[in-house]
């Protein structure tokens, strides 16, 4: 959620691309299009664009390594206008939990006790790296 991929000038992305070990079974990643500017009293569209580009690159790398969105292993969301703050994370939490816990909930019969959580529909911003490519292209 709103990963700090900029640390070390993006070094994590290089390490991710050369990583040969195991990957998680399911991974949720999300960010806003105003990660920097959305939490400050001034805009830096260049920084917002760079942070979004890093997130897009990470999602594309994970997809290339086998975490396929269409196979239910990766969910990458870009929320238009969202910054790096708890309000944005809260908005995306339901979709993240729905995605990450889907295999677990599949073990419950349809007549599960009413005390089980009822998740609202996932956010319409869900998408894969290909949608982010378009976002990144528009920023460049």
Automatic annotation (TrEMBL):
Comp. bias regions, Pro residues: 111-123
InterPro entries tied to this protein: AB_hydrolase_fold (IPR029058), Mycobacterial_A85_antigen (IPR050583)
Biased composition (Acidic residues): 130-140
Domain of life: Eukaryota
Annotated spans, Disordered: 111-140
Name of the protein in its database record: Uncharacterized protein
Protein species of origin: Chlamydomonas leiostraca
């Amino acid at each position: 959620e709103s990963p700090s991929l900029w640390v070390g000038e993006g070094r994590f992305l290089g390490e991710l691309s050369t990583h040969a070990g195991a990957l998680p079974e399911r991974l949720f990643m999300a960010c806003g299009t105003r990660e920097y500017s959305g939490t400050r009293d001034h805009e830096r569209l260049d920084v917002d664009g760079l942070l979004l580009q890093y997130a897009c690159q990470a999602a594309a790398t994970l997809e290339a390594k086998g975490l396929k969105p269409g196979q239910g292993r990766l969910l990458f969301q870009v929320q238009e206008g969202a910054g790096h703050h708890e309000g944005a994370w809260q908005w995306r939490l339901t979709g993240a939990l729905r995605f990450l816990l889907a295999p677990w909930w599949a073990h419950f019969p349809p007549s599960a006790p009413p005390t089980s959580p009822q998740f609202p529909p996932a956010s319409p911003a869900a998408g894969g790296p290909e949608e982010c490519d378009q976002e990144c292209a528009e920023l460049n």
